Predict the 3D structure of the following.
Amino acid sequence: MKAHTLETQATITPEKALEILKEGNTRFVNNLKANRDLLAQVNDTRAGQWPFAVVLSCIDSRTSAELIFDQGLGDIFSVRIAGNFVNQDILGSMEFGCNVAGSKLVVVLGHTKCGALKGGLDAAAIEGLGMDNLNHLVGHFDPIIKNIMKDGEERNSKNTDLLERLNHHNILNAIEHIRKESSTLRKMEEEGKIKIVGANYDVETGSVVFL
Ligand SMILES: [Zn+2]
């Protein structure tokens, strides 16, 4: 498999980009990795890069976008932060990926058993560890947690039903923020130049389900 070029990138529609990622994940779960010479791809991409998608995923060591979508060098922009949420700098990275570098798809990829989201549910315990920056990070999920908790429901990471709901809503929340806070990406989506989609990766099976 060859690295993308300006020409191949130009032929990819947002729908096609989604299809490429779905096919890549199917290869991944079936252990049918595409034949790819990464060193040759270093050479192919020495003059530039033409990735077709931007994937926002968690820093979790099991969720590397290139691996789980079976992609090579120069194929996707990979944005990673614990808990796969967006902030202004991440939106800037996405705007670069789509509006400057020509990508056709933005994927917000959550995953099961996310430690960052568990931390959000166990925020009080995290606070006890005295790490201000980590407190700040897990605090990001607080408004979502408060929104989705049922009356009398227990707030901790052992509540797997709540954790699953939080993961789902955290993905939707990130997509909403992208559309609300980036007029560039919103406009590109409205004009059909890009698609913005959510997906969930199952750390037990390796499969990605698009929402
Ligand atoms: Zn995670």
About this structure: The pocket of zinc ion is lined by residues 58, 60, 83, 111, 114-116 (CB under 6 Å). The first helix runs from residue 6 to 11.
